[in-house]
Design brief:
heterodimer; A: mainly alpha; 0% strand; globular; B: alpha+beta; 5-stranded mixed beta sheet; 15% strand
Chain lengths: 530, 390
């Protein structure tokens, strides 16, 4: 045993410094840090785009941009937020925390891990490059079809569509590589005694996410490749004139797209209960029930896709099937909500920033979930579909349920990662500003959607003006508040009050047994779980 | 800190609510329903919203109670949870599950079932059929049966560019006004066949409660039965390109007798246009008429000055198709000629033969050949277009 330790130490001193350290690193924590940093940068890029949109929508009329540029911003905003902000953040946490939580020295496939990350910056460039090219007169800008690529509009579109297709391919490869790595790590590198049913909930959330990614990303890759050949090589997959069907693309896209929602959320559902148990000073309630519910949601996720296009025209039995199966998701989800609240119930709670985000997350994600239940109703969906009601709904699930969840995780683990405490006052201020301005941004969108405002329009009728003005102002507050978040993270990384190993009084689990920050090779000797 | 925060949230919400109350132009729910389907949708929506709101606030209340009661600052000691073990405990654990099953599949599920069946029943008792065609970026309507058979309308946005660019005051129905309204009789079930010529569109009037995707190359169905006279406005709600926000739907629902008068007037208009097709036109008259037709139907893509928006929408000025002859030696129009392209379309270019009459087509062709920087010099008579259709 002592010889291996020496060997590891030698390796530690050998690894390169400066830029080469980051380019060549195979260390799970370095790669995790890169994922999280990339995610934070892209969060601001995607956010700046949507603030452009909100500024344009502040009042009726075209003030700042032409409709074509507007369409480019909405689509690229979504792709960036989903693929370049939320997914890399979750993968970053997986890289950092899964080896720590299961008592492993590193991820199972470190070189693959490095490659998985370094595919991301080129794809982010592919997504945004057409904006720059258009300035030089090359092409007509980025993808202008919304993030869903629906043909025939995407067949009609310019080079932005091709760039986006290749970006999606790279992002997809990166996700699949990351997923393979996580599955292999979880199946092979758990500490002795840690059976699957003793794995931390975050590991469970990611295990199911990884399977969902592997099951659905290839379908997306296939769909966008078919689109590419329709665009350039004369095929007719989505062209009725050649025997194809435009709606078939929607089936393929959402076969990926709906599980994608859970891909974004399952990792969060994994670590939120861990945060709750830490700050309630009481073990999480219903571990088994939560694991089974995660599996149930993962399974249901891949059989409900068509509820994203009920108005496309489907036979009645298909409509009924997709409606009832979608409603069925509420059952395992309700079990999860019950377990989360029961974990808090009769605990001894304190409300540091991670706990504030976790509790706020439960409430706001609850609104997203309940409006989702209503959206499952086919008849009412004819009204909600593609209106601002849907926009508000999926921002409650993906901003509140996704990004605010990630923020809870950042505040929770940042002291462990950096070895320093962040500024608690700023963290709390960030939470309250985010929660309030988020609601003031999106509650008006529920109403404006019910009143009949379609999404993805650059200009709107006069009766929608007041709600849009409120939403725009709040969106700017929301956007600017995030600078506090970035500032807090940077200051924490640079120094501050030293964090203890356990960091939080109620924290349980292997990651809290290591020093803060953890050593280069996390566990050089495997801990044993009883 | 938490308490202070809570107070500021409360205050913030209260302030924003009072600010909202102060003005009148806010709508909190679906607009007034005027079809059986919209009424049903509104009822379903209200019921579901009520149920979900109850669930939300009950759960929220439990959580908030816990947040205030079970905190460390009050020296609350954490309890140890046990899994339910006795039959009674398991029974009480199952109760929420059963309640949720009941809500999902009975209280919400059964009305939802009936709504779906009603929504999809496009044929029973339908007294007339219209065809709605979406194209970039306008709606076209065609009456397929009954007295109105043969009436075709092209419905273009009438909001001016000055209004959009804030150079002129915005009119009441900013972005929601078109030149030709679709006219439907009150109280009749109208079956709607939906299609598109280029990309996906979605025909939506919020007060009708129906929305259906218009798919190029396919026919989709829906129906409306407007029970109250009035003018109803909606929009395309499937992203269809740069003009997506500029293709509104406007429907006039009128009593049957007024509808009949309208049909008769439209029929007379068509007869007049047909007669116009048989008379001999001068080039000047055709160019003058053609300018109007062009600006209404073609300029949105090919631009008012004919410069187009290449590569998707080619320029008219110097276009090879326009400069080439229309008719061959045998007197028949050539494939890929100017007339062929306008009648039958190709790719992104829609076929206009079912939407424009002979005079309009002859006029717009003559205009494009002798204006917009072109001077081919020839002309085409409406009678030649009429012959070409055979």
């Amino acid at each position: 045993m002592s010889t291996t330790t020496v060997a590891h130490d030698a390796e530690h001193h050998d690894h390169p410094t400066g830029i080469m350290r980051w380019l060549t690193t195979t260390n799970h924590k370095d790669i995790g840090t890169m994922y999280l940093t990339f995610s934070l940068i892209m969060f601001f890029v995607g956010g700046a785009m949507i603030l452009g949109i909100r500024a344009e929508l502040f009042k009726p009329g075209l003030q700042l941009m032409n409709p074509d540029f507007f369409n480019q911003l909405i689509g690229v905003h979504a792709l960036i937020m989903i693929f370049a902000a939320l997914m890399p953040a979750a993968t970053g946490f997986a890289n950092w925390m899964i080896p720590l939580q299961i008592g492993a020295p590193d991820m199972a496939l470190p070189r693959l891990n490095n490659w998985g990350f370094w595919l991301l910056p080129p794809s982010a460039i592919l997504l945004t490059l057409p904006f720059t090219l258009a300035l030089f007169g090359i092409g007509d800008g980025a993808l202008a079809t919304g993030w869903t690529f629906y043909p025939p509009l995407s067949v009609q579109g310019g080079i932005g569509v091709d760039f986006a297709i290749f970006a999606v391919h790279l992002l997809g490869i990166s996700s699949v590589l990351g997923s393979i790595n996580i599955i292999v790590t979880l199946f092979n590198m758990r500490a002795p005694g840690m059976t699957l049913m003793k794995m931390p909930m975050f590991a469970w959330g990611w295990l199911i996410t990884a399977f969902l990614l592997i099951a659905t990303i290839p379908v997306l890759a296939g769909a966008v490749t078919m689109l590419l050949t329709d665009r350039h090589f004369g095929t007719h997959f989505f062209d009725a004139a050649g025997g194809g069907d435009p709606v078939m693309f929607q089936h393929l896209f959402w076969f990926f797209g709906h599980p994608e929602v859970y891909i974004l959320l399952l990792p969060v559902w994994g670590f939120i209960p861990q945060i709750l148990e830490t700050f309630s000073r009481k073990p999480m309630y219903g571990y088994k029930a939560q694991v089974y519910s995660l599996w149930a949601i993962g399974a249901l996720a891949i059989v409900v896709w068509a509820h994203h296009f009920f108005t496309a025209g489907m036979p009645v039995p298909a409509l009924l099937y997709f409606m009832y199966s979608t409603m069925a998701i509420s059952l395992p989800l309700a079990v999860l909500f019950f377990c989360w609240i029961k974990t808090m119930w009769k605990g001894s709670m304190s409300f540091e920033t991670p706990m504030l985000f976790a509790v706020g997350w439960i409430i706001l994600f609850g609104i997203g979930g309940l409006t989702g239940l209503v959206l499952a109703d086919v008849a009412a969906d004819a009204q909600y579909h593609n209106s601002y009601f849907v926009v508000a709904h999926f921002h409650y699930t993906l901003f509140a349920g996704g990004i605010m969840g990630i923020m809870a995780g950042v505040y929770y683990w940042l002291p462990k990662m950096t070895g320093n405490m962040y500024n608690e006052k700023l963290g709390k201020l960030h939470f309250w500003l985010t929660a309030i301005s988020f609601n003031l941004t999106f509650i008006p969108q529920f109403f404006v959607g019910l009143a009949g405002m379609p999404r993805r329009i650059p200009d709107y009728a006069l009766q929608f003006a007041e709600f849009n003005a409120i939403s725009s102002v709040a969106a700017f507050v929301l956007g600017i508040s995030q600078l506090l978040f970035a500032y807090n993270i940077i200051m924490c990384a640079r120094g501050g009050k030293k964090a203890t190993d356990q960091v939080w009084e109620g924290a349980k689990g292997l990651e809290w047994t290591l020093p803060s920050p953890p050593p280069y090779h996390s566990f050089t000797e495997q801990p044993t779980i009883k | 800190m938490v308490k202070q925060g809570m107070k500021s949230v409360g205050l913030g919400l209260l302030l924003s609510l009072t600010a909202i109350r102060a003005s009148a132009d806010y709508s909190w729910n679906f607009p007034e329903p005027v079809t059986p389907m919209a009424l049903d949708t509104l009822n379903v929506h209200n019921k579901f919203m009520l149920i979900t709101a109850i669930i939300f606030f009950v759960v929220l209340a439990i959580m908030i109670y816990s947040i205030f009661a079970h905190r460390k600052s009050k020296q609350y000691k954490p309890v140890t949870d046990k899994a339910p073990s006795t039959a009674v405990e398991i029974f009480w654990t199952l109760i929420p599950f059963v309640i949720l099953l009941l809500i999902d599949f009975v209280i919400m599920g059964i009305p939802a079932y009936h709504s779906v069946v009603m929504m999809e029943d496009t044929r029973d008792k339908a007294t007339m059929v219209i065809k709605v065609t979406g194209s970039q970026w306008r709606w076209q309507y065609e009456y397929l049966d009954g007295d109105a058979q043969g009436i075709k309308l092209v419905s273009n946005l009438t909001t001016t560019e000055d209004e959009m660019k804030n150079k002129a005051e915005k009119k009441e129905h900013y972005l929601l006004e078109v030149d030709n309204h679709l006219v439907l009789p009150v109280g009749e079930k109208v079956r709607i066949l939906m299609t598109a010529t280029d990309v996906l569109h979605n025909w939506w009037v919020p007060q009708f409660g129906s929305s259906r995707l218009a798919v190029p190359g396919f026919i989709r169905e829906t129906w409306v039965q407007v029970d109250k006279a009035g003018t109803y406005r909606g929009q395309c709600k499937e992203l269809c390109g740069k003009g997506h926000g500029y293709m509104p739907v406007v429907v006039d629902a009128v009593p049957m007798d007024q509808y009949k008068v309208w049909v008769a007037a439209k029929k007379e208009e068509i007869a007049k246009a047909d007669a116009g097709a048989d008379k001999e036109w001068t080039k000047e008259d055709l160019v003058a008429t053609g300018k109007g037709v062009y600006e209404k139907n073609c300029a949105v893509c090919h631009q008012v000055n004919g410069a187009g928006l290449p590569p998707a929408f080619p320029a008219m000025t110097g276009s090879k198709i326009i400069l080439a002859p229309i008719f061959g030696a045998d007197g028949k129009y050539l494939k890929d000629s100017h007339l062929d392209r306008i009648l039958n379309g190709k790719g992104v270019m829609p076929a206009w033969k079912s939407t424009l009459n002979d005079t309009d087509i002859a006029a717009v062709i003559t205009y494009e050949r002798n204006a917009l920087g072109n001077s081919v010099g020839d002309m085409i008579q409406p009678s030649q277009v009429k012959a070409a259709r055979q």
